[in-house]
Write the structure tokens for this entry.
Amino acid sequence: MTSPTALPGLLAVHAHPDDETLSSGALLATWARAGGEVTVVTCTRGERGEVIGPDPDALEGDGSRLATHREAELARALGSLGVRDHVFLDRVPAVDDDGTPAPYEDSGMAWVAGSTGTARLGADVPAGAFVRVPTDEAAARLATVLRDRRPGVVVTYEAGGGYGHPDHVRAHEVTVRAIELAGLDVALWHPSATSDDVTAATAALEADWARAAGLPIAPVTPAPSYVSDDRPVVVRVPVAPVADAVLGALRAHRTQVQAVTRAPDGAGVVGCYALSNDLLAPLRAHETYTASDQRAVVVPPEVQVAWPR
């Protein structure tokens, strides 16, 4: 195990409960297991999310009750990943706060017509939506967290928000601005994958263990924005060593994630899952990231960092 004093802190910024696991669960679990300080900042509570499967408590459409439920799911997921430090961005005091700050609400989204996984801002955007919050206001709160935790690595979505969700895009913008405001020297990483990686992992789902889920497999085209052959992958995190933690965290988000299955040894992927689109997606053997620059940083021994030549 890497000495806790040798590892810099890791801070991840995500838009909704479940994004921390779907986007960077293996990295968070690996960093925490190695003894490093890990902080997750969540920008909204996913009030406008769909509820998968039976909804006996009628949570979908009831923003405040769904938010409370998803807070509990998030706490369980973070426990599975070994993350002990969590912050809701709207609870961070701002300079001009004169009382309890207004919550940052899930902005909602709509699927782009003809796509299988690209989102855009919908027509019905609530007044308190995260996308309506001025970037500098949210960034000032995040800068407060950055100055307090002083991480060496910050993780958030690339500029396209992973698949275009407006809250993801705003989280990227807020994070970049917050780093500027905080004046810290940090490495900024973004989840990213090559088309070959995604194609190979998706092909691995053509097996009996995956077909048993009874759901169609998500197509690889058109690719969401986190898939790119123009951004070099420089960080690779093996998922298998922390598979139990990641799968446990996925299952914790049961209103949002379904069909969580571990693959048999040698399957080429660690497992699979599906979201509300009812399309099976692979849990790839590696989480992969691009970086904003070639800044050197100490990482857990399992994490592979290689800059392009």
Remarks:
- The two ends are 29 Å apart (CA to CA).
- The chain is about 30% helix and 15% strand.
- Helices lie at 19-33, 63-81, 135-149, 161-164, 166-182, 195-203, 208-211, 243-252.
